[in-house]
Amino acid sequence: MNFLSHLINGISLGSIYAIIALGYTMVYGIAKMLNFAHGDIIMVGGFAIFNAVNMLGLAPLPAIVAGVLTCTALGVTIEFVAYRPLRGASSLAVLITAIGVSYLLQNIALLAFGSNARQFSSVVNVPTLKLAGGRLAISGVTIVTIITSIIIMIILTTFVNKTRTGQAMLAVSEDNGAATLMGINVNKTITITFAIGSALAAVAGALLCSTYPSLTPYTGSMPGIKAFVAAVFGGIGSIPGAMIGGILLGVIENLSKAYISSQLSDAIVFSVLIVVLVVRPTGILGKKIQEKV
Amino acid sequence: MKKNKLLIQNSITYAIVIVFWLLMQGMAMTGHMTSLLKGLLVPLCTYTILAISLNLTVGILGELSLGHAGFMCVGAFAGALVTNSMADVIPGLGIRFFLALLVGAAVAGLFGMLIGIPVLRLKGDYLAIVTLAFGEIIKNLINAVYVGRDSSGFHFSIKDTSSLGLDETGVVLIKGPQGITGTPEAATFTIGIILVLITLFIVLNLIHSRSGRAIMSIRDNRIAAESIGIHITKYKLMAFSISAALAGVAGVLYAHNLSTLAATSKNFGYNMSILILVFVVLGGLGNIRGSMIAAVILTLLPELLRGLNNYRMLIYAIVLIVMMIFNSSPKVIELREVFMDSIKKNKNSKPKEAA
Amino acid sequence: MAMLEVKNLGISFGGLKAVDKFNITIEQGQLYGLIGPNGAGKTTVFNLLTGVYKPDYGSILLDGRNITGKSTIEINQSGIARTFQNIRLFKELSVLDNVKSGLHNHYGYSTLAGIFRLPRYFKQEKAMDERALELLQVFDLAGVADYKASNLPYGKQRKLEIARALATEPKLLLLDEPAAGMNPNETAELMDTIRLVRDDFEMTILLIEHDMKLVSGICEDLTVLNFGQVLTQGETSAVLNDKRVITAYLGE
User: Using 50, 70 and 90 to split pLDDT, how confident is the model at B319?
Assistant: First the structure.
């Protein structure tokens, strides 16, 4: 029962990573860049929701909507101001700029909210589920998290495969130049990608802070890194890969914390990543790109 | 011709370091040195060595490493371990410190080679994330390790101090998350500058040699390098492990500038790796002198902005973003060229107008 | 003994036979052409010969030595050098350094000797400089030795790539579409250059080309490749007048 409980919590944590990883992998696949600031957008989402609840007195659901709107606006603005000017520059230059944006967000939050941890009250009001005669308790947050990530995955996959905008996104990720020649507005497509990724970050923020209630300007950083690891693990650029990578990562992390050592859980997670990449260099579902000689 | 130009350029680089040293010494002797600046001198040397060594991997070999701090960490702990455990065998601190530097470099270099073997065959972004992962693993492992020494030798544990099973003569050397305490502060600014000069010597000479050409040919076109018979793995490992070894040297210097050495996210985590990467990119990939200057300026900048207190990191971040866009945005570069051309045109047309 | 003897060479990619039953015999000092419509598998043949791909079957003998399945580095050391369809220079290095990198395996000193600037470093570097300039002189590039390779005009870049390949002291030189992107003047100059390389360096040359003027102008013999298989081989004018070859290029 203990094992099952740890497993389910791991899946829940992994679902959060998966939602974050989706944002990373979409932006990487379509805009061909590593948005290092993605983790910090999660943090902004967390603070937006916190302030919406505590300062504006909004109920959880409207607060989440406020968070999503804030993050979407933020993501789109960042893309326009910091990343678009660097379209065509080396990927290293874009990465460093993204790092700059990450620092910027963290320090603005530090100035605005200080470094003291906020107690985030869960936005989930679903009661704990008790199974197996009360021996297995699954918290409401866990249930909502897992279901949310499944729903997001379904919606996103449908969107990408069935809508025109989604197809445009696929086209841009395959071949930017050809997509333009086909009449696809690449700028608009990339903006929409960032919008979706940032909206997802807000949702992830809501779920993350509901699970781990302490919120500081640095809250988004490590989950962001881990979600990035998950995206690479699953094969960067692949939506199902991000899901699988995220959930596997969450499960491994949680089981390591429970059965080996909470100190070493991070080391173990990263080690698994390394083993996988050594065996399968493009990640679990990643595509092998043949270099033309 | 070219040979002389190279000699002059390198001499300028060394000269900048020596002039800086003289300047700082001068300031200290005439009482113009603030304690703030004094405390920054050894860290400046540390960051400079880190930046130069990372540039070897990122700018010369062309591989993005986000785990440089991990090698610094390995070197720091190996070096501090030597200094702290050899006090009775080698009483002279100077010699012990020298030995610590050698051991730190060697251990870090070894880690570089071991990690390099699986990592260097990965592509770009995957390599980056794996190096980041290794950096975090190293930091995590060192935090979990307890090392002690007693009459029967060295003891290791990953649980706690008591499970080391030391006898009465036992001394705990590494206390898990608390790290190593009591390292003698053997690092001085002069020693730091000497280490910077040695780092420059090694890296600059490597770059301008047959091996350096091989490394850069791999960076510029791996497939072509292979086609002319260059052993890709050998030279990738060479660059990577030399880079790691030098990061280890920086680590030893760092460790002997504090009394407590603990591996935190701040000093040995990915934040540090990224900080060094920022120095390298801003100084110019492959530009050794540039990384040196960037490391110094970007370390001093937040301190000089202390007057602006809370806003300094914010300004730092804005400066970073603006500089990147200014330096690398294709549109901005185009605008700059148009601007420069129009200035030239004005210059050329002026004499006619005057007549 | 022929310089290059390839028997029944073949490779498949995911079920598609890219090259099948490929045979070719090239004598020392020949100027040999490999032609065929786009996608026929010509560059794949080059990749097989230089170890970029390992063949599924068949054998490759270079100057009597079996090099089938060897690595690119081993093959280069055995004596094959190549240029690429999309010029692959070391863009950030100088023109001189591009050639010097080709001399890597023929002049040596240890890395430590380089770092500590021991006498051997100076001696070997000087020898490499001389040899590299010699090669650049042949291609009229000595004047731009210190330029960054990416700053050269296209035609000169192509010549530099050939110079770098020659620095590795090959027995067989493979040129992949050397005239690609060149105007008639540059092509004529290239033809002279290739003839010069064959004559002065006693080089055996196999080249892939689409430019028929160059092919008919300098190649002595041709092999025509179509859908990965040899369509016909033989003396240039005979091959070019072969109806099947004309049909293959123009389509039915």
Answer: confident
Nearest residue of B to residue A108 by CA position?
Answer: B314
**Which chains would you list as touching C if contact means 3+ CB atom pairs under 8 Å?**
A, B
Residues of C with CB under 8 A from a CB of A: 43, 47, 52, 84
Determine whether the interchain pair B227/C76 forms a contact, defined as Cβ–Cβ distance below 8 Å: yes
Give the tens place of pLDDT for each residue, A161-219. 888 888 888 888 888 778 888 888 888 889 999 999 999 999 999 999 888 888 999 98
Considering the entire predicted model, what is its pTM?
A: 0.89
Residue C84's closest chain A neighbor by CA?
A293
Give the ipTM of the model, two decimals please.
Answer: 0.93
A2-279: CATH architecture: Orthogonal Bundle (1.10)
Q: Chain A window 196-235: which residues touch B at a Cβ cutoff of 8 Å?
A: 225, 228-229, 232
Q: Which parts of chain A register pLDDT below 70? A: 1, 132-135, 288-293
3-class SS letters over chain B: CHHHHHHHHHHHHHHHHHHHHHHHHHHHHCCCCCHHHHHHHHHHHHHHHHHHHHHHHHHHHCCCCCCHHHHHHHHHHHHHHHHHHCCCCCCCHHHHHHHHHHHHHHHHHHHHHHHHHHHCCCCHHHHHHHHHHHHHHHHHHHHHCEEEEECCEEEEECCCCHHHCCCCCCEEEEEHHHCEECCCCCCCHHHHHHHHHHHHHHHHHHHCCHHHHHHHHHHHCHHHHHHCCCCHHHHHHHHHHHHHHHHHHHHHHHHCCCCEECCCHHHHCHHHHHHHHHHHHHHCCCCHHHHHHHHHHHHHHHHHHHHHHHHHHHHHHHHHHHHHHHHHCHHHHHHHHHHHHHHHHHHHHHHHHHC
Nearest chain B residue to C73 by CA: give it: B229
Domains observed in chain C: 1-79+170-252 (3.40.50.300), 89-168 (no CATH)
